[in-house]
Amino acid sequence: MHDACGVVGISLRENGNNVAKSIYYALYALQHRGQEAAGISVYDGKTIRTHRGMGLVSEVFNDAQIALLRGVVGIGHVRYPTTGRSCIENSQPLLVKYKDGAVAVAHNGNLVNSNQLREQLEQSGDIFHTTSDTEVIAHILVRELLRHDLPDAVRALMRKIVGSYSLVFILGDIVLAVRDPLGIKPLCIGEVESGMMVASESVAIDTLNGRLLRDVRPGEMVIIRNGELFSHQLSRLPCAAHCVFEYIYFARPDSIMDGRLIYDVRVNIGAKLADEHPANADTVTPIPDSGITLAVGYHQRSGINYRECLMKNRYIGRTFIMPDQNMRETAVRLKMNTIRPNIQGQRLILVDDSIVRGTTSRRIVNMVKNAGAKEVHVRIGSPPIMAPCYLGIDMPSREELIAAYKTISGVQTVLEADSLGYVSHKGLVEAIGIPERNLCMGCLTGIYPLDIPGEKCAAAQMTLAEYVC
Ligand code: AMP
């Protein structure tokens, strides 16, 4: 199961207001990271109370439920639609009770050894209530807490779990946050009016009128107690493998991630595309919303007129039912409409962030051609996606990735585009401004920053257990 999610943890000083409303707003800002389910846990001084549900943050919570979550320490989670089991049990935060208390946990990322760990734990008597790897994490932490103090328990956990993880826990009266030794998924620290917070993206901090302090470092454990922050560096190497897809597609453009404003990165990518794949055209236009910032960059660099030609309806609920082909076609038109006068007779440069299966770009090339475009030149802000992601982005299997089995000109033929250009690996890395050795480009290269059974691993990697001091 792949979980590409959003997490938040906030600890306010004792005299602070209830934390639940702040977590609710922070989750609202992180909604793009997961629309399947949402949840909040708050510690009231004695117990941890949780409310979770399927759907958007606004669907899961109302004022009455938030009012029941009283306390100054809390965490929250939004979960991405997945190909795995979509059920309330797998939503988060997850609560595990044990001899000395209870732990609530929310996780963004994906473990690659969770099946083995689960089997070992089941052999020794643990009983699991969910199919998610987050429960495995919680069980291991609880076992280690019974034997060690907190930093040593987290060290022991980090020696066992392999994969990507940005974790937030409630443990007694503290918020504990941990980022995996390669910093694959994002996590940042912010100061809010009467306390401190961690969140997947800085937009959650902005929403609470807070101040972004910095990113949680790869392999760092952060403890927030009574609104104050304490840091422990638990991995020994200054090494990173930040997920490249966060920069290309996943994160919000107004987020600052590992020191880069995502908006700037995407404008840079658009400019690289203009340098690498120029076209004789009249108009640059984005596939909304993910192509917008890239198209701005292409337009600024090429000087070609920018004009919106497609409008997305942002109010289509997840539960929109399409029982037959006729209705499915209506649904497509409901979701995206053309602005015909902007398209007719035009040679268009159509910009999007990525091609996964190829269905979106094929459909949209077809739509703009039907609306009268003379030529359609497709430009893509990532190199071809040719391998699955095991580390937290929900991607289809290799067989479903169009670039895994077709050449670029083969993809162009499927799209029925007049030309097709993907940004190069080098162009992408330069646009992000982080050295390639510190990025995870597994979905673009098929080479991963850690050992994944059956896949290639970047040369001479230490095992993650060896990273932990
Ligand atoms: P496809 O139709 O399968 O080629 O999907 C490509 C479109 O899906 C692009 O417009 C992207 O913006 C979007 N996209 C890319 N990756 C993902 C993902 N992991 N989850 C959801 N949408 C995605």
Q: Any overview of this molecule?
A:
With 469 residues, the chain is α+β, with helices and mostly antiparallel strands. The chain has two domains: 2-241, Glutamine Phosphoribosylpyrophosphate, subunit 1, domain 1 (4-Layer Sandwich), CATH 3.60.20; 257-432 and 439-445, Rossmann fold (3-Layer(aba) Sandwich). It is built from 18 helices and 25 strands. The strands form seven sheets. Strands 3-2-4-1-10-9-11 form a seven-stranded antiparallel beta sheet. The chain has a six-stranded antiparallel beta sheet with strand order 5-6-7-8-12-13. Strand 7 and strand 8 form a beta hairpin. Helix 5 crosses helix 6. The longest helix is centred in the middle third of the chain and has 15 residues, at 262-276. The radius of gyration is 23 Å and the shape is globular. The relative contact order is 0.12. The mean pLDDT is 92. Bound molecules: adenosine monophosphate (AMP). The site of adenosine monophosphate has 16 residues, from helix 13.
